[in-house]
Amino acid sequence: MSTAMNFGSKTFKPRPPDKGSFPLDHFGECKAFKETFMKCLRDNSFDSSRCRLQSKEYLECRMEHQLMAKEPLQKLGFKDLMDPPPSQADKDTNL
Any idea where the CHCH domain is (predicted)? Predict the structure, then answer.
């Protein structure tokens, strides 16, 4: 009699991580950004709205080092922190 149990012939199918799941930063490429963000959170009673700039910089680092998929920052909720497009007056003065 075999003690092995057969739970069917289903095989494991790997799938990519859900949005918001990131690979670990094994080489510490964004450690300084993470530490700055975490310090900001601790200093502000974990009110993330006060640490949006640090959060943006951390996510930019992760995208630059391919630790997450590149996404437009506007799509990640940082539209208000983006540099405004140059106005027409700025374009005219550069001519």
Answer: 30-64
